[in-house]
Amino acid sequence: MPKTVKHKFEIEHLQILDEDGNVDEKLEPKIADEDLKKIYETMVVSRVFDQKAVKMQRQGKLATFAPSTGEEAAMVASTFALRKQDWMVPSYRESPCFITRGVPLEAIYIYMKGSEEGSRGEPDAHNMPVSVPVGSQPLHAVGLGYAAKLRKKDEAALVFFGDGATSEGETLEAMNFSGAWKTPTIFLCRNNGWAISVPTTKQTAAESFAQKAIAFGIKGIQVDGNDVLAVYAATKEAIERGSKGKGATLIEAITYRMGMHTTADDPKKYRKEEEVEPWKEKDPIERFEKYLRKKKLLDDNYKEKVWAEAEEKVAAAAKKSEEFKAGHISEIFKYTFAEMPYIIKEQMDYAQKTWEEENNG
Ligand SMILES: Cc1ncc(C[n+]2csc(CCOP(=O)(O)OP(=O)(O)O)c2C)c(N)n1
Ligand SMILES: [Mg+2]
After folding, report:
1. pTM for this one?
2. Ligand 1 pocket, mutate which of 196, 201, 252, 254 (most atoms under 8 A from CB)
3. How many domains does the chain have?
């Protein structure tokens, strides 16, 4: 008889704040009142920014935009847990993460108009650029963590990707290397139910995305992705693990893509409104408001002020981005290589020549 090796595993599901805003006090992370308010204010700005972006795209003022409405807790609370030296490695949906890292709102709009200028924040800010090829950025995050290890620097990298990205070989390669090399990487899988029109039920036969960590020898945990406190606590712990040399963590944040995939998509073609309805009750901002109210950190006046100020900030940023004049075409060839390879230089010269002919001729 051949011997069999049986592995048993369990995946923890973390929820600290229930849908009514009740907190599990035993698990409540220690976050200063001012920081709780900052997280709330950032989520509100993110929501207002998002909804304005969709309108601007419809008016022809922005290129394709990927909304984040409904996923603010998964994005803001995790990014908020980062230290300044840690890396934020986004996909194409993470404008709330750039906002949390202090990137000016107009710079993000300007990026969405097609210009790279200023979109990542200060030149030395540890924010990676938007990554559109699905599943490409987890490898970058492992590389960043490995480089930090070689340089003996305490820098973790938090990488965002979706449920769909878990079917890309590169995502799995990245997790494998993070395990083998014990890199300080936090893989944050936003399980938002859909990869464009493909539901999670068709994405995997596994019961959870978090359990994929087991195969790579890294830690896996599932969290309620609409629960600010659970997302924050899990990310904070993962950063500490990485920082202490204990390796990588895969966090599956269960959330929901409330809107369209991007402004180029119409979800009515493939999903029923009945599916979206129950998620409205789970809105991460409303849930956090209930918690803050119970903690006496939020009343009607404060709430009104936060939403009104967010509207003002977003309107001002939108105006600035509309007034922005794109730089020279040569800009799009810069910022990737420290020394420009000749093949890129050739393309830049060609583009420059054509640009000048068209603009002067
Ligand atoms: C390599 C690659 N294949 C296909 C696409 C087209 N595409 C863009 S987003 C997307 C779905 C990704 O879904 P998921 O990973 O769940 O992230 P979400 O959009 O839900 O945030 C696809 C297939 C792409 N950008 N890159
Ligand atoms: Mg998805």
Report:
1. 0.94
2. 196
3. 2
